[in-house]
Amino acid sequence: MAILSLGMKAQTHVVRIADIEVYPQYLDEYIKMGKEIAATSIREETGVVCLFPCQLKEDSTRFRIVEIYASPELTATI
Predict the structure, then answer these.
(1) What is the pLDDT of residue 8?
(2) 43-65 b/e with 16+ CB inside 10 Å = b?
(3) Is 69 within 8 Å of 14 (Cβ atoms)?
(4) Can you tell me the distance from the alpha carbon of 30 to that of 25, in angstroms, rounded to the nearest whole number?
């Protein structure tokens, strides 16, 4: 859990990190679907502040996704 100070008021956000490995034969499909899923999450899921997906430079079959949620209560529905 991260504390983020915004002006005079502090808010509690939840940060989740996913470490994903994809079979090489599914890599293109995973990237395509990942973009769609991330866009849908931002647009439709209550409490999603942002998503930071990244493909690891040293191994193109591995991804790390950082998800930030507005509060612990809002992660229960996801």
Answers:
(1) 47
(2) eeeebbbebebebeeeeeeebeb
(3) yes
(4) 10
67: exposed, middle or buried (C-beta count within 10 Å: 0-12, 13-18, 19+)? Answer: buried
The residue whose two tokens read 């090489």 is 24
Check whether 54 has a pLDDT greater than 70: yes
Could you please state the CATH topology (level 3) that the domain comprising 2-75 is classified under. Answer: Alpha-Beta Plaits (3.30.70)
Please report, for the chain, the start and end positions of each structural domain, with discontinuous segments joined by +.
2-75
- Write the pLDDT tens digit of every residue in 58-72: 999 999 999 998 887
Report the run of H or E that residue 47 belongs to, with start and end.
none
